[in-house]
């Protein structure tokens, strides 16, 4: 051939697949022997280095010729370099770890600024009392529902469905109405429109998912508030502490990716935050347990200060250190409230289980290909991004309190309050009479 290539015929191969096409029975195939002026039959440019051939029925080329012919197929296949493999070891899901992020100090400054404002506002609302905390929870519910509704909103389809967004907003009140007479359900059926059935039913399911994850969960939070601010403040504070220290440990020490769903989460941050959270739970329970306005339950929507007998859970018990303490140690005994041991269980849950609420939210966001649920909090995302772990923690705190704390936390004031609120005047008189007879019998037995 004039261009330095040779025509070879392989009739015994049948139809053989190649990078540049298919060769059939008896067809002639042009094969280059790799001179600098060589050109392939497909018209691809000549490789910069001589090509190597192998006798396997299909022409194999070296790495340089593969790169040269990649322009025809649109693919480039090359071996990963050792430096690239090392770099990927410090990445998760293709994203750099926080410790390797060039903009981490700028991001930290923004997050710190937002965190200080949030903690300051939260502390002020807690100081104002039960009613204001309840109002804060309601506002957070509304913002969370708004962010979640916006994920599936399609303006082009909603233009054909006037009033459909108002229908979604009506469902949070449906729990108070008999399901068979629910006007929201009837309204939904009447608004079904041709060519939008799939979208409407998707929104219907989405709305009830929001009811379950936001409004139903928040009812546990409200119950914790009125059992005593302590049972709302301690679990919420543990989640905040866990988030802050997971960020700080990951910021300075994080090297090992924890989970692909959250690329910037590291094992160093997870372990460091877990230890810090458990220790903080034990200490915070002791500090909060000394204030009656935090430990006393509220049975109404009044805003006055509370004074009560908080029960045995918040009364210190003294433990002698005995031989365990060295002679130079100033304390020979320590005072520990029983509630501090229960706080360790809350701290353990907040440090190990509750973060998986955040991982669940991360997977949810990846399913919708979004980074954050919103942008209302600079450096943090939306309200939902901050509340994902709080929702899991609030449910656990309520169940734990009702299972292990409430049955043991009786006091004279609590029992009297229940008698006055739950018994009629006649029932109270009967109870008084029965107690008088019991006391009279005991006096006779003692005499």
UniProtKB/TrEMBL annotation:
Biased region (Low complexity) positions are 62-73
Q: How is the cofactor bound?
A: Requires a divalent cation for activity.
Residue ranges annotated as transmembrane are 204-223, 229-254, 266-285, 339-361
Query: How the protein sits in the membrane?
Result: Multi-pass membrane protein
The GO terms this record gives for MF are: phosphatidate cytidylyltransferase activity
Cofactor(s) needed, names only, are: Mg(2+)
Tell me the pathway.
Lipid metabolism; Phospholipid metabolism; CDP-diacylglycerol biosynthesis; CDP-diacylglycerol from sn-glycerol 3-phosphate: step 3/3
EC numbers on record: 2.7.7.41
Q: Where is this region: Disordered?
A: 34-96
Q: Does the keyword Transport apply?
A: no
Q: Which chemical reaction does it catalyze?
A: a 1,2-diacyl-sn-glycero-3-phosphate + CTP + H(+) = a CDP-1,2-diacyl-sn-glycerol + diphosphate
Lineage: superkingdom: Eukaryota
Where, per UniProt, does this protein localize? Membrane
Looking at the UniProt record for this protein, which Gene Ontology cellular component terms does it annotate, in alphabetical order? endoplasmic reticulum membrane
List this protein's GO terms for biological process.
CDP-diacylglycerol biosynthetic process
Q: Which family does it belong to?
A: Belongs to the CDS family.
Q: What is the protein's known function?
A: May be involved in the synthesis of minor phospholipids and in modulation of IP3-mediated signal transduction.
> Which protein are we looking at?
Phosphatidate cytidylyltransferase
Organism (species): Panicum miliaceum
């Amino acid at each position: 051939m004039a261009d330095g290539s040779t025509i070879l015929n392989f009739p015994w191969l049948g139809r053989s697949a190649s990078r540049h096409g298919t060769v059939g029975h008896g067809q002639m195939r042009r094969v280059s022997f790799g001179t600098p002026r060589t050109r392939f039959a497909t018209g691809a440019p000549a490789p910069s280095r001589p090509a190597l051939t192998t006798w396997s029925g299909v022409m194999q080329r070296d790495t340089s010729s593969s790169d040269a012919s990649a322009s025809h197929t649109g693919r480039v296949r090359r071996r990963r370099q050792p430096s690239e493999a090392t770099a990927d070891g410090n990445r998760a899901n293709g994203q750099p770890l926080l410790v390797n992020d060039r903009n981490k100090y700028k991001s930290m400054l923004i997050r710190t600024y937002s965190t200080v404002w949030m903690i300051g506002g939260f502390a002020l609302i807690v100081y104002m009392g039960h009613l204001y905390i309840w109002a804060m929870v309601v506002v957070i519910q509304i913002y969370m529902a708004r962010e979640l509704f916006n994920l599936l909103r399609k303006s082009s389809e909603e233009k054909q469905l006037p009033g459909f967004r108002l229908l979604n907003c009506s469902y949070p009140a449906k729990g108070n109405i008999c399901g068979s007479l629910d006007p929201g359900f009837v309204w939904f059926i009447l608004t079904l429109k041709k060519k939008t059935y799939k979208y409407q039913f998707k929104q219907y399911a989405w709305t009830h998912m929001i009811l379950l994850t936001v409004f139903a969960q928040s009812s546990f939070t409200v119950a914790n508030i009125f059992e005593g601010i302590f049972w709302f403040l301690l679990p919420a504070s543990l989640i905040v502490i866990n988030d802050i220290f997971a960020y700080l440990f990951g910021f300075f020490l994080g090297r090992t990716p924890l989970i692909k769903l959250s690329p910037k989460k590291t094992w160093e941050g997870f372990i460091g935050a877990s230890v810090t959270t458990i220790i903080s739970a034990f200490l915070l329970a002791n500090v909060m347990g000394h204030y009656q306005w935090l430990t006393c339950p509220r049975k109404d929507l009044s805003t006055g200060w509370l004074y009560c007998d908080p029960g045995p859970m918040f009364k210190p018990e003294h433990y002698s250190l005995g031989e365990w303490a060295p002679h130079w140690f100033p304390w020979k005994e320590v005072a520990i409230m029983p509630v501090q041991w229960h706080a360790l269980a809350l701290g353990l849950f907040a440090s190990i289980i509750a973060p998986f609420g955040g991982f669940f939210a991360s997977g949810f966001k990846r399913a919708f290909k979004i980074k954050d649920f919103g942008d209302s909090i600079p450096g943090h995302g939306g309200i939902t991004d901050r509340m994902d772990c709080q929702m899991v923690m609030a449910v656990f705190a309520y169940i734990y309190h009702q299972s292990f704390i409430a049955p043991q936390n009786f006091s004279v004031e609590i029992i009297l309050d229940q008698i006055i609120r739950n018994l009629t005047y006649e029932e109270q008189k009967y109870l008084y009479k029965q107690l008088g007879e019991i006391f009279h019998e005991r006096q006779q037995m003692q005499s």
